[in-house]
Amino acid sequence: MSHLRKIRAYLAEVESEIERAFREMEEKFERFWHMENFLEPLTNVLVTPNEVIVTADAPCCDPSSVRVRPLENRIEILARTRKVVRFMDLGINRRGEFSFYKTEVEIPVKVDFSTMKVQVRRGFIEIRISRRL
Amino acid sequence: MAKEGRVIFVESRSMPENGVIVAGLPDVGLVGIISVTHLRASLGMEEYGYFESRLFPPITILEGGLPKHPIRIFGKDSLLAILSEIAIPAKAISPLAEAIANFSKLKKAKYLICLGGLSEPMRLSLEKLNVYGVASSGDALNVLKQHNVKILEGGYMVGPYALIMRECAELGVTAMALLVECFPNYPDPEAAAEVLKVFSRITGISVDVSSLIEKGEDIRMKARDLMRRTSLELAKMKKRHEYEVPPTLYV
Prior knowledge:
Chain A has 1 helix and 8 strands, in the order H-E-E-E-E-E-E-E-E. Chain A is α+β, with helices and mostly antiparallel strands and 133 residues long. In chain A, a hairpin with a 3-residue loop joins strand 2 and strand 3. The longest helix of chain A has 33 residues. By secondary structure, chain B is α/β, with parallel strands linked by helices. Chain B contains 8 helices and 11 strands. In chain B, the strands form 2 sheets. A 9-stranded mixed β-sheet of chain B has the order 1-3-6-7-2-8-11-9-10, with helices on both faces. In chain B, strand 4 and strand 5 form a beta hairpin. In chain B, helix 1 crosses helix 5. The longest helix of chain B is centred in the middle third of the chain and has 17 residues. The mean pLDDT of chain B is 91.
């Protein structure tokens, strides 16, 4: 009987893992469908002894629209552009336009998100977070 | 068409000799490409030829609906400009550097000036950007010093300009690289404007850089994908060596 119990427990674990994977996939598609007119900005992460500095190159963004949300070991950056940009205007031969910047950046070390400071300068979004030692 | 593994240059029309050649190749901050593109537009330079190789990716630039080579040579009066509009694959760097040095030798260039960047992680905090110089010879070094350009006395140089400097030193071409502090992996029109000011000082060729600053955000948006591809190629070349202490063990 103990073998059967072990098999049932294992199957329950596999089922739970599959459900979790499907949930994640659905969340990703949901975000894609709701925010498909976005561009992923170039980003950079600099780790110093005291803090982590994340920057994102978001030209033509509206500084008042910038939102940064901590998510476990990463941050989500969202910003609206000051105007809707068509891909054709950028010399890209495809239809479509975007009006948002959106990306998730992984933070490679432990940080204290309560210390997070966000600044926008000349279309660059700078996020500083103190390291948790 | 070039033989396998080689880069050749093709003259579409007769090119001037004994003038200045400026090179804008993909590097940190896309400084070279942005500055030479601006130079081409500001001075109304015309296409004089191109570089060709099987090592280049299968890319054609479309201009006015017509196909153009991705690495071209433009000219106006005695100034020639080499401009790459693609990220150069790591395997093509060495043959391209050799071809550019040979081209400069053949055209009896007074100077070959490479415009590029020096990666500065804290670039966003900088109010003033410094421009540094690297020379292929004593004569080139003197030109830089006469125009008050700070010299990079030591360290590593990685990428296409590094090889061009070495090839020019061997061929006796008077070459210099002007490297401005810039973002490591964001297009940097402000840095391009600074390096063009020094270029103007050395060559006496006047260039108005105000539109580079005014249109900076638009340029950054358009150059985004090229910057991403360039960063990938620079990583393959181990560009990070430039941030390391060179093995000068003598203290």
